[in-house]
Design a protein that fits this description.
Blueprint: E1 2-7, E2 13-18, H1 22-26, H2 31-50, H3 55-79, H4 86-136, H5 140-156, H6 160-177, E3 185-186, H7 187-202, E4 211-218, E5 225-226, H8 232-242, E6 249-258, E7 261-269, H9 277-282, H10 285-297, E8 302-308, E9 312-320
Parallel strand pairs: 4-6
Antiparallel strand pairs: 1-2, 3-5, 6-7, 7-9, 8-9
Helix pairs in contact: 2-3, 2-4, 3-4, 5-6, 6-7, 7-8
Length: 323
């Protein structure tokens, strides 16, 4: 039962009482707000806040959405020249709470199922990678012994550049064979790996080549863990496409860490190089693989932005490394 204020044909205000059931009372006006709130809660609030355990922000935004929805419904009722009663407001509140609860339960179940599918895919990728490693792996002790023999030969030949290159290659192999067996490694090891990779790549070129290559990092004495070899594909891509001995080229790599927030940037010159059929076929596979790893390992905890123009390729990666 509600009171409705109307005017008759002579302009006299008449107050009448109308019997209305609960669903007639609302006239489904709440559906205009419930439907958008359902999608916002399911596809934005739960992945953005609930999934990363920001429960206070999640509940606060839901309360804000409920308040705005009740205000909107009350305004529509008032606009229809119907008096808003406290009973009507309470009905709006319980009605909206019911649908918000349904949306929240649905969204959480949907998120959990997606996370389980991601975990299953990650396990499948991991097993596949381990099988490929087992199929292609050469006895690491044989490799290190061979490298040590080459190192001894180069030192006797008084060739420090070759000795340095063999040492760097040995460190790279040791990291790839042993450290990548773990799901996470300390960031300092990943940085060492990048430095060794850059040093080894520089041996291919002369100091007279028109190259500018820099790697700057700042960790503020922090050393969180990161998935191994996650950053190297971007560095490798920069060396593969960013250097041309016939023209000025540059590679700028920066890494900054602040409160477990990793900011990694790679900027390099871009050249139109002739590619073999093999390179054309497998071009871009490294970047696609690292995108998949980021989605699997750091879902909702990373942001990757890759931009390019005619002369420059730019990668910006942000990862929350907090466990």
């Amino acid at each position: 039962m509600i009171e409705n204020v109307v005017e008759d044909d002579n302009g006299v205000i008449i107050q009448e009482t109308i019997e209305m059931g609960p669903f007639i009372l609302e006239n489904f006006i709440g559906m205009f707000g419930i439907i958008p709130l359902f999608y916002i809660n399911t596809f934005y609030l739960i992945p953005k806040y609930y999934a990363v355990k920001k429960y206070l922000s999640f509940v606060g935004l839901l309360v804000l959405g409920l308040t705005l929805l009740i205000f909107l419904e009350s305004y529509i009722v008032t606009f229809q020249r119907i008096t808003v009663h406290s009973m009507m407001v309470r009905f709006f509140m319980f009605y909206n709470l019911f649908f918000i609860a349904i949306a929240t339960v649905y969204g959480i179940i949907r998120h959990q199922l997606r996370m389980e599918r991601r975990q299953q895919l990650l396990e499948k990728e991991k097993v596949s990678a381990e099988l490929q490693l087992m199929q292609s792996q050469i006895n690491p002790h044989f490799m290190f012994n061979a490298l040590n023999n080459l190192l001894a030969i180069s030192e006797r030949s008084d060739n420090p550049q070759t000795s340095s290159g063999i040492t760097k290659l040995s460190d790279l192999l040791r990291f790839m064979i042993y450290d990548t067996q773990a799901e996470r490694v300390h960031l300092s090891k990943e940085i060492d790996f990048i430095e060794n990779f850059i040093a080894l790549q520089k041996l291919r070129y002369s100091t007279e080549d028109p190259f500018e290559i820099s790697f700057c990092f700042e960790t503020n004495n922090q050393n969180p863990k990161i998935a191994p070899t996650l950053l190297i594909p971007f560095v490798e891509n920069a060396f593969k496409h960013g250097l041309n001995i016939e023209s000025a080229s540059f590679i700028d790599i920066t890494l900054a860490l602040n409160n477990d927030q990793l900011h990694f940037e790679v900027k390099n010159s871009k050249h139109q190089l002739q590619k073999t059929e093999f390179e054309k076929k497998y071009s871009g596979i490294g970047l696609e693989n690292v995108k998949k790893r980021l989605d699997l390992i750091y879902s909702n905890k990373h942001h990757l932005d890759i931009t390019e123009d005619e002369h420059t390729f730019y990668v910006q990666l942000k990862i929350n490394l907090a466990e």
